[in-house]
Amino acid sequence: MRYLLISCCFLMVSCGSYSKKHQLTEREISNKFITNPYFSDTSQDFVYKANIQVYDNNFGGLLIIKKIEDGNHRVVFTTEMGAKLFDFSITETNFKVNYILDDLNKKLLINLLKTDFKALVQERNLVSRRYIKDSFDIYKTTILGKSHFYYVSDQLDQIIRTGHRKEKVHFLFTDINNNIANHIIIKHHNINLQIALKSIQ
């Protein structure tokens, strides 16, 4: 029983908040929702030159993101010659694999890509906490059961997915014009997975 209590206490401490570890100052919630504007225009396809590094493999090509309608996006990754590597449909309530190359068809990888692309394209998320640090307003929300912190200055600069007080995945948006992030990096800290995107529009 003593061991169980000690283990529970240790778990509670180790799962302490990311906000305390990174000395974020809590403020009153001013907006009920946080918005990601980067893939919100249904009138255009968002086309990026893409490199996906997963373990010891590199896959290069084009990533096309299309908003079909509110809460509904299509994400397709092809070689530059047009051969499809994966094709996902992402809605507010569903993630569908329309196609995936056999070399990428691993359950763990699909789940990682699911959470990454869901966070990348989801437009509106309910805010549970608001913080400030330096020049950032920081909004905590939950996507697919995982905590995400949105760092906002004049625009959305970063999203950080956390777990057990640590940064698990870092989304970095740079070179932003007209609500388009021309450079995007998605880097996992606990496994060798990185997605680098550069707009070619």
From TrEMBL:
<protein>
    <recommendedName>
        <fullName>DUF4292 domain-containing protein</fullName>
    </recommendedName>
</protein>
